[in-house]
Structures are given as structure tokens and as C-alpha cells.
Specification:
Layout: H1 4-31, E1 35-36, H2 42-50, H3 53-76, H4 78-86, H5 88-99, H6 106-124, H7 137-158, H8 168-191, H9 198-225, H10 228-250, H11 258-277, H12 286-289, E2 291-294
Parallel strand pairs: 1-2
Helix pairs in contact: 1-3, 1-4, 1-5, 1-9, 3-4, 4-6, 5-10, 6-10, 6-11, 7-8, 7-10, 8-9, 8-10, 10-11
Length: about 300
């Protein structure tokens, strides 16, 4: 029988997903009146962001969502929380439709539904917990190799973003996943009694902050050019997929049922490909919605 704490964790996870999916919609509303964001002047761009109250509100909504999310993880576990987080795409669709006038076709809604199935199938694949022994030297080597591999993939995709702005979405998802992997690594290093974990934990923690700041920046670039209802599902799906893969490659996690695991990946890839080929009503004006000039 479900305990009060378990039920409370589910409600907190649902509250978190509402906030997480409202945040980018609010920020995109603010971005429509800003100059085009680029990497050429990052400090000027950050000043522009924080000088806009609506954008700061969107950021604050996302930060507030982290509190119920963390508590939900502690009370019910990530295997329960992550499938619930994907249902936040419903909130995203409704909010983007009302606030941004983005309209999705039945095919687009079907693609989002396919991507939403991925965390559910990952849950049923019964992925094991982190292997504590990965906090040693081999684990740090695996983390380094995984980080370099993801950065190479992200860099390769970024080369096409000028022509295909939608590619910013998977790049953002990959960078966010590196942040999640390094946060997990920092906690693993601190919790290991076998090594002096303070230095590697500090490095991993610093990279966690760095990757998240970079991902937030690319997220803003993408939201200026791509419909939020298309960008966020793809970005979040790639984030989930890369994070789970990192858990297998770096932290010794194993799937109890590989059929469910690969089925989840197949649904995610299929949904992302379909979504990438579709047009969202209201998206054609995205590139021209920002003010002239670049920051």
C-alpha cells in the first residue's frame, strides 16, 4: 500500500514538471523582444537576460521547480519521478499554445507521445543503481572518455546549427546531460571511502555548474529560432537518453530487461526524428521576432 510520503512524492514530481515546462515558455516570451543571442558576446547577452524581468521570472520558475523535484527523488526515487516528468510535455503544449500561439498538428502530438514513452520503458527495464566502485580511478577514466565523446558529438551537431537551427535542441540536451552526469559523479566521489574524493568531487561539481550554464545559454539561442513546443521535447528526450547512457557507461548501471531499454530508445529516436521533420504553426516567424542585431 502506498504511503503518504510516496503519494506526496508523486504530487511534488507533478508540481516540478509543471514549473519545468512553464519556465522555457515564459523565457521565450521575453526572448521575442530581445536581440539575437550568440556566443560572440556572452557577458552582454547575460546582462540582457537579467535586465529583462520576464526572463528572470522564467528562470526563477525553473529554479523553484528544482525544490519539489529533489524532494520527490528522495521520497519516491528517480525511477518513479522521471516518467512523471515527461508528462510535463502536456503542460508545455497548452502553455505554448496560449502564450506563444504555437499550434501542433496531430502528427506533432503523436511524436511527443512517442518521446514521452522513453522514460516509462527505461523504468520498466529496471536499470540498476550506481556501482560504488566506479568512484575509483577506472570510473574517472570512463567519465573523462564519456565527456569527450559527448562534446565531440555536440560539436559536430553544432556545426550544422547555422543552417538547421533545430540542431541546437540535441546540443542543448547533450550539454544538460553532461551536467547531470558530473553532478552524479561529484556525489559519488564524495561518498566513496576509498579515495580522497574532495578534489575529483570539486572538479566534477565545477563542471556541473559550467555545463548547466552553457546549456542554459544554448537553450536561449534555440528558443529564439525554434518553437518551444518542438525544441523542448527534443532537447529533454536527448537529455534523458544521454544521461541514462552515461549511467550505463560510467557508473556501472545495468538494465534488467534490455528489450524494454532498447524499445525506449527506439521510441525516443522515432519521436525526435518525426518532430524534427514537422513544422509548427507560428514557428516561421521565430527568426524575425527578435530585434535586429546580435548579442
Amino acid at each position: 500500500m502506498a504511503t503518504v510520503q510516496y503519494i506526496g512524492g508523486i504530487f511534488l514530481a507533478l508540481a516540478a514538471t509543471v514549473l519545468f515546462n512553464l519556465s522555457p515558455v515564459i523565457q521565450k516570451t521575453a526572448l521575442r523582444g530581445m536581440q539575437t543571442v550568440s556566443f560572440t558576446r556572452p557577458l552582454a547577452a547575460m546582462k540582457m537576460f537579467f535586465g529583462n524581468r520576464l526572463w528572470v521570472l522564467g528562470l526563477a520558475v525553473g529554479i523553484v521547480g528544482a525544490a519539489p523535484y529533489i524532494v520527490a527523488i528522495l521520497w519516491t526515487g528517480p525511477a518513479v519521478v522521471q516518467p512523471l516528468i515527461s508528462f510535463g510535455f502536456i503542460v508545455l503544449i497548452v502553455a505554448a499554445g496560449r502564450m506563444l500561439d504555437e499550434k501542433l498538428s496531430c502528427s506533432a502530438i503523436g511524436a511527443i507521445a512517442l518521446m514521452s514513452l522513453m522514460p516509462l520503458f527505461i523504468y520498466f527495464s529496471s536499470v540498476s543503481n550506481i556501482d560504488p566502485s566506479t568512484a575509483g580511478g577506472e570510473g574517472r577514466q570512463a567519465l573523462t572518455v564519456f565527456t569527450i565523446a559527448v562534446l565531440v558529438i555536440a560539436g559536430s551537431l553544432w556545426a550544422f546549427t547555422a543552417r538547421f537551427p533545430l540542431f541546437i535542441a540535441p546540443v542543448t540536451g547533450l550539454i544538460f546531460s553532461l551536467g547531470a552526469i558530473h553532478l552524479t559523479a561529484a556525489l559519488a566521489f564524495l561518498g566513496s571511502p576509498e579515495i580522497a574524493g574532495l578534489i575529483p568531487a570539486s572538479v566534477a561539481g565545477s563542471l556541473f555548474v559550467l555545463f548547466n550554464l552553457a546549456a542554459i545559454f544554448t537553450l536561449q539561442m534555440g528558443l529564439q529560432k525554434v518553437a518551444a513546443s518542438r525544441f523542448i521535447p527534443i532537447s529533454q528526450t536527448i537529455n534523458n537518453l544521454a544521461t541514462v547512457t552515461g549511467g550505463l557507461a560510467v557508473f556501472g548501471q545495468r538494465a534488467g530487461n534490455w528489450w524494454f531499454y532498447f524499445a525506449g530508445i527506439a521510441f525516443a529516436v522515432a519521436g525526435a526524428v518525426i518532430m524534427g521533420r514537422l513544422k509548427i504553426y507560428g514557428e516561421d516567424a521565430e527568426r524575425g521576432s527578435a530585434q535586429t542585431g546580435a548579442v
